[in-house]
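Deliverable D2.4 — example input (structure tokens):
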């Protein structure tokens, strides 16, 4: 019953304020007149009675103010008054408002843009039920310094049989499918997963069904499930797709479509179109290969730590039972989202970017706080008059904070618009970032809420010091100062100086980190490849499977015909192939190998080597020098002795001072097992694992002696490689229509793409560092210019007493330079401490690199010196007579 009158009272007091004020004025005046009549009855004259009545009432305006404060909704009315007044004050000072809003917009905009990525990758929950219970379960090899590795199917089967902490456990790996007609074949990205995969994710099809555990077994009917997008695009959302077939690349076997997944389902940002059973053969040799990713869902009430403890025990148990394959292998259990966000240092990169924009926002806040302090000094008279009229300190703080909030919201809105405008550019330069939902990185209502929350927090940060300082002033002293001109107190100046020092220190930290990452990126780009990447076209070839390529002879015939025709194309200098490009991607632990005549190493202490399948002209095409022996020839085919070429690192490591040519080695895991290869040559080292990776032992094997059913063609051209893409495609189709191009780019482009995460972070950090440098220099300039304006009278006196222009410049610049040097020193200490946290992002540069740190400090000092010189230059032109009359 009391709510309605209260609401009506709020409506009347706010929206019919003139009526409420007139009624209040009538009530107060009537009350004073009644008091005066009583005084007259007591014998006072009318004038004395009215004066005594006003004194007893406490003043008409004071009474009105007390009544207003007691009204229903008074706080809302006061807030609206403060907002209106704050807006008027900002409009009254357009220069200050524009500078402050733009400064804050830069900080808020940068934070909003980066937060949109961080939120999608690191913070937003996975789009599955109970996502916190989803884990990755992978193997580790501490002796090789590897904290996660794909697991063997054999171990997955053991884990699935023995684990008790998981409600379900599933494995998956990539597999390809194709759509073929009479004229063309289209590659379709697929994945093979165990039957527990989708139930683990709590995903149900919208059409048809999922495969059962029985259909996971070898020899059962081949079935497949389509993604919603693939079903819509390829089959026009036809419900009759159930029962149709699609071919798998591996063996050209038809797979019957039994279901369609829901719209929006995505796993780790892979646009998988077809899902099929894993088809694990418990007796197959493939069980020894580390080829599976394993995922699990914890049982209700089970923690990750409990699951990790069980898997640690299981790793020890498997090592005892299967020493030949499990010695030295551990197991790690990680949250699913964290595992994928850790790939390619994505998590660390995003956290560094988030820290950088946080520093940028703090610099912006310090800048605005300095502006508000300077403005507060000018408004001392206004605040003194307000206090003299009865305004409390809390009332003054509330008014000043309201103005800061208005300013912050304007800056936040401008920052959100800036982020929204720059979002397309941000996505364009961003590398591939794992996520679990389509269009995960976006600007939406949640990001807008973050921008507004950040702006409100920033308002508190930059509005706190000025509000406290101006509300704490001595009333009499303030009134005396305003009579002489606003100069500001020592504490006011100290506050401004501290803010400038803080700006410079934060800028040093950001500039130092950016400088080290730029140097690291430059080192990566200049890393010695060991081969020539210019004018090389890379073309992915898929897929040489099925009945058309069932034997080694058929595959060799295909390759011979293909390369004969490629080398005859106009503009082709040489052509070859490899099983993998040298990119900055995870490439496994390598394969154990043995050297004939040497003791077999104990399990867990095997010597490891990388391996590549290459076409005989590989070294010539890549221009990798041969240091000893010979390369492969066309005669090294399936009918001749098995041969291999090793790299220089392997030769020095395993035959120091000796000659490896003629020695025999065996790659333990290479199918078919037990084959010995004769080393026929030693090639110079090259970056086979990509830029910035250490060179490891490498064994090159001949395509003609191994079933290379997929390859990357390498075509060295005399002119622009892009001009040959169409010719290579037609050549491939002319040799065999069942093989097709999956990707075509130059080797330089492929290497550049492998550095896209580093380029992304360096580009953004450079932008943020430039903005930080600009804001810090603006802060130094603002304080110096304000100081010059306040010291005009002093400067005039100095010049009248004989000080020259050079003395004035030294006075002003010296003060700014002292602040700069203090800030640089503080920032240098912070940079030395924080850069150690970024070590994983550096290559070829120390976190304490003296050149980068010295250059950073020198650059910031130079810019700050220029910012000090500009107002100092104006100061030295002051006319002494005008300055003495300044106040």
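Example output (designed residues):
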């Amino acid at each position: 019953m009391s709510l309605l009158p209260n609401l009506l009272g709020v409506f009347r007091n706010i929206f019919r304020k003139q009526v409420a004020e007139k009624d209040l004025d009538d009530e107060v005046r009537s009350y004073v007149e009644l008091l005066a009549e009583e005084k007259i009855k007591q014998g006072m004259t009318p004038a004395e009675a009215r004066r005594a009545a006003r004194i007893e009432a406490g003043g008409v305006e004071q009474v009105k103010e007390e009544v207003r404060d007691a009204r229903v909704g008074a706080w809302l009315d006061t807030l609206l008054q403060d907002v209106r007044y704050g807006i008027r004050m900002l409009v009254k000072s357009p220069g200050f408002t524009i500078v402050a809003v733009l400064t804050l917009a830069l900080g808020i905009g940068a934070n909003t843009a980066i937060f949109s990525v961080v939120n999608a990758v690191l913070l937003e929950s996975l789009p599955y039920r109970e996502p916190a219970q989803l884990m990755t379960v992978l193997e580790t090899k501490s002796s090789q310094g590897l904290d996660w590795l794909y697991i063997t199917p054999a171990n997955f089967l053991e884990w699935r049989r023995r684990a008790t902490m998981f409600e379900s456990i599933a494995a998956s790996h990539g597999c390809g499918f194709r759509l073929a007609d009479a004229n063309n074949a289209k590659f379709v990205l697929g994945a093979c997963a165990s039957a527990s995969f989708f139930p683990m994710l709590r995903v149900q099809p919208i059409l048809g069904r999922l495969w059962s555990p029985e259909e996971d077994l070898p020899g059962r009917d081949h079935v497949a499930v389509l993604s919603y997008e693939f079903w819509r695009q390829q089959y026009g959302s036809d419900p009759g797709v159930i029962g149709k077939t699609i071919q798998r690349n591996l063996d050209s076997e038809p797979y019957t479509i039994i279901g369609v997944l829901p719209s929006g389902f995505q796993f780790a940002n892979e646009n998988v179109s077809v899902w099929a059973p894993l088809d694990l053969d418990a007796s197959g040799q493939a069980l020894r290969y580390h080829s599976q990713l394993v995922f699990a869902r914890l049982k209700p009430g089970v923690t990750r730590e409990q699951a990790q403890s069980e898997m640690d025990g299981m790793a020890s148990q498997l090592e005892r039972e299967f020493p030949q394959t499990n010695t030295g292998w551990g197991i790690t259990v990680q949250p699913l989202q964290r595992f994928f966000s850790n790939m390619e240092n994505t998590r660390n990169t995003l956290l560094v970017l988030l820290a950088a924009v946080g520093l940028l926002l703090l610099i912006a806040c310090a800048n605005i706080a300095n502006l508000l302090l300077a403005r507060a000094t000018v408004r001392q008279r206004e605040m003194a008059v307000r206090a003299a009229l009865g305004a409390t300190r809390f009332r003054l703080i509330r008014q000043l904070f309201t103005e800061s909030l208005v300013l912050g919201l304007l800056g936040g809105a401008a920052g959100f618009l800036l982020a929204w405008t720059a979002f397309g550019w941000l996505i364009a330069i961003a590398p591939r970032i794992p996520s679990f939902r389509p269009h995960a990185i976006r600007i939406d209502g949640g990001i807008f809420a973050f921008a507004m929350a950040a702006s409100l927090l920033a308002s508190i940060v930059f509005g706190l010091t000025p509000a406290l300082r101006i509300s704490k002033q001595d009333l009499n002293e303030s009134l005396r100062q305003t009579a002489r001109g606003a100069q500001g107190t020592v504490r006011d100046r100290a506050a401004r100086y501290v803010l400038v020092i803080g700006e410079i220190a934060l800028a040093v930290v950001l500039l130092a980190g950016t400088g080290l990452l730029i140097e690291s990126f430059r080192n990566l780009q200049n890393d010695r490849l060991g081969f020539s990447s210019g004018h090389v076209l890379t073309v992915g070839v898929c897929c040489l499977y099925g009945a058309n390529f069932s034997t080694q002879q058929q595959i060799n015939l295909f390759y011979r015909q293909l390369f004969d025709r490629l080398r005859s194309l106009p503009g082709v200098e040489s052509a070859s192939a490899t099983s993998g490009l040298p990119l900055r991607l995870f490439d496994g632990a390598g394969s154990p190998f043995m050297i004939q005549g040497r003791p077999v190493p104990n399990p867990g202490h095997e010597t490891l080597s990388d391996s590549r399948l290459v076409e005989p002209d590989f070294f010539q095409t890549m221009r990798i020098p041969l240091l000893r022996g010979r390369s492969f020839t066309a005669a090294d085919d399936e009918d001749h002795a098995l041969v291999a070429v090793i790299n220089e690192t392997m030769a020095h490591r395993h035959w120091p001072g000796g000659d490896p040519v003629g020695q025999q080695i065996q790659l333990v895991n290479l199918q078919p097992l037990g084959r010995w290869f004769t080393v026929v040559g030693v090639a110079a080292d090259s970056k086979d694992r990509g830029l910035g990776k250490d060179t490891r032992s490498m064994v090159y094997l001949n395509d003609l002696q191994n079933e290379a059913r997929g390859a990357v063609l390498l075509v060295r051209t005399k002119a622009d490689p892009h001009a040959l893409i169409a010719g290579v495609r037609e050549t491939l189709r002319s040799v065999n229509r069942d093989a097709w191009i999956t990707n075509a780019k130059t080797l330089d482009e492929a290497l550049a793409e492998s550095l896209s995460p580093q380029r992304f972070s360096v580009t953004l950090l450079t932008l943020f560092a430039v903005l930080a440098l600009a804001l810090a220099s603006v802060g130094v300039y603002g304080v110096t210019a304000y100081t010059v304006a306040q010291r005009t009278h002093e400067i005039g006196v100095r010049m009248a007493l004989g000080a020259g222009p050079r003395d004035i410049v030294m006075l002003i610049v010296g003060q700014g330079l002292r602040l700069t040097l203090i800030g640089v020193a503080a920032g240098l200490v912070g940079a030395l401490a924080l850069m150690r946290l970024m070590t994983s992002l550096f290559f070829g540069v120390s976190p304490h690199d003296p050149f980068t740190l010295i250059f950073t400090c020198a650059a910031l000092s130079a810019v700050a010196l220029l910012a000090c010189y500009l107002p100092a230059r104006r100061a030295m032109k002051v006319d002494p007579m005008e300055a003495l009359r300044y106040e």
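The longest strand covers residues 166-180.
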